[in-house]
């Protein structure tokens, strides 16, 4: 088979994913198994892989998916445990009590709370939790979804405790022939700092952009204007700076697990302290129009504007007398546990060096493919332990605990199916070249990289960021996007003599913004406020800041792409 035909064949699984998810609007749970079957057929025919090699490559993906799902499950167990206790609702009400100005609430809840929930839970939960909270504060349902999706977007670059970078980027790069696990881990650490740096300038404007979207599209139904943005600009820019400085510092100095946890805690704390001292308060309180003036497209299915879904995931009982310190305490415990168990500590070294804590399956099914599950080192373990510590802290009953576990299992079920098949597909794309009979002993991913590199040479730096956005838009996850495209971007950057670190960092940064228009996340958020079916409106409006942000990242990468 000629090289052009091999390139087309290698790209068919990814093309199928885009067509099925975006064109046919199939759910990922239905599309990803089909994509895997296509990858299997191409691997067996064009790449002549035996069944055991295909099975081994798929099993590599299953092991990686298992580790990621353990993290997701732990994050959801902790989140739902705190919801049952009323801690999440209390944290939100603490923010809302500071000001009744909807612009201020957008910054405190629509930005800081959503970014924090991204860091500790991620995977679509922040917008699904915050949107109903905003509706209860008088936001139109459509506005609440747009604000929640846009507000949390940049934090998804690091997602739930760093999953998109490690294991996302690290494992994808580590699977490339000639790149050791140690080199991949070090590479992911470099990507972490650079990805945050790409957010440095545009990221500090996100609170202002989010408020501007609210004011312009929902402030006045008869006369759209940005006039109400001017009084809130000092607070919005202050909040952006207060967030972005610890965001970048945590990514550079500590690692990908902490930026989306530490930055909203520090930034939100500093912003709240400034407001309590009377700083940055707009002179006049600004409120959204009353529900009677809302167009039908803004409204939830309940006339009062309250969320229609009783299962919105926000506890309304309990926690009434809870102090904010007590409400935040489990997350403070989690931050401490994660820090003391990272690789730069003695405990972290033990958890990654001892086989019992990090079992490895070498030569899977008699091939040269190897992978494992670092179950003790993975943040999922410490998320579960934090949830267990919260049970006596809040005096939760056995029924509360069973409900939290049940909700977590239900929520993780659909992503599990999609994740296993998409990462199994990536495993085939990455490891197909290790089989001695493969064409030129080159993997499907590298073949695709070589073909695209030859076509886009000279302009490739301009399409890296859009690929990151499209990857997240299609897969619904920065982590899955990174697993899917990082190896491809790495190989392409090498082919084109561009900085591989800068290229993948830009992909991850832009991929975060893709969450604001991801079909999966949009559907999940709309479902919590009774507006399913309005996906087009949300995507169309949020596409405005997403395109602008992506353009900025693309320009920054073009300037820095030749840095070694």
TrEMBL record:
Q: Which Pfam families match?
A: Lactate_perm
List the GO molecular function terms: lactate transmembrane transporter activity; solute:proton symporter activity
Chief location of this protein? membrane
The answer to whether the entry has keyword Coiled coil is no
Entry annotated with the keyword Ion transport: no
Entry GO CC: plasma membrane
How is this protein named in the record? Answer: L-lactate permease
